[in-house]
Amino acid sequence: xxxxxxxxxxxxxxxxxxxxxxxxxxxxxxxxxxxxxxxxxxxxxxxxxxxxxxxxxxxxxxxxxxxxxxxxxxxxxxxxxxxxxxxxxxxxxxxxxxxxxxxxxxxxxxxxxxxxxxxxxxxxxxxxxxxxxxxxxxxxxxxxxxxxxxxxxxxxxxxxxxxxxxxxxxxxxxxxxxxxxxxxxxxxxxxxxxxxxxxxxxxxxxxxxxxxxxxxxxxxxxxxxxxxxxxxxxxxxxxxxxxxxxxxxxxxxxxxxxxxxxxxxxxxxxxxxxxxxxxxxxxxxxx
Length: 287
Ligand code: B12
Hints:
This protein is an alpha/beta fold.
């Protein structure tokens, strides 16, 4: 941080730290910490911290991957504590409290991608375990899922990325699979990774998908499979449909109930870890 009292510095480019924090979509204290660490250039003018718009743009550009993508390595967020709290809010139907908790975790600097992988997914997994053990009713699970869906809709904005497109992706779940959230996460990760995404949601009929792929040039089709009762023939059906439609779409299968062997045998690709998806796509289809 540099100190100056030169009023000529206070040109139109200057933002207060609160304005900078608002544009970065973080809490004031988070922006302040970044200034103290020297990550975000700021200086004092008229006794207040100021940030140049151009410095903010450069910071945002450099940090975009951090804000959006899962972090690798260092982790300061106490995920276990947040998982317990969010589980409590979701199962009690406390949508406002759940939303505030997630907003705070992001405002404190956690990448939105990490919120998906280390907070929402484990909470939903626990909800599934408790439902399967007969300790959570179906309405309570449904209500919790609705709140999680609303939270994800709000987090979606963190996964937008400007710049040249790396290709077009389609995301969905196959026929008979009503589990929508993981496919939405896949769509957001692909957007953050620079893809234009057509997110079709759950339960998409194969023949209708083929017609869609005929008119929408698609580089990657990402299929999320969660329902263990999914028809085993769906792997071949989806790969065949994409080949008939245009012959160029790479079909990637993932999700807790997907079968890697069937995926590969059908001519698709299996990717288990969502955090690795865009890197794997770099290897598979190039940038
Ligand atoms: C919510 C929910 C539902 C809701 C879904 C509503 C909605 N809007 O999505 C409803 C009520 C519809 C539902 C229905 C059923 N469900 Co359900 N459901 C769940 C629950 C609690 C959460 C699902 C979820 O969103 N998880 C969070 C996501 C983010 O986690 P994920 O799927 O693991 O995804 C991660 C990775 O796998 C990966 N990933 C996922 N997809 C992809 C794709 C690619 C390309 C890549 C790279 C990565 C990737 O990235 C994600 C982030 O890490 C799960 C519990 C659980 N373990 O998930 C049960 C669960 C999946 N359901 C289960 C069951 C049994 C059912 C039903 C059969 C129940 C019934 N008797 O009717 C039906 C089937 C309906 C159908 N036809 O699909 C079981 C499956 C058990 C099994 N494996 O044998 C589970 C595991 C519950 C349990 N513990 O028993 N369910």
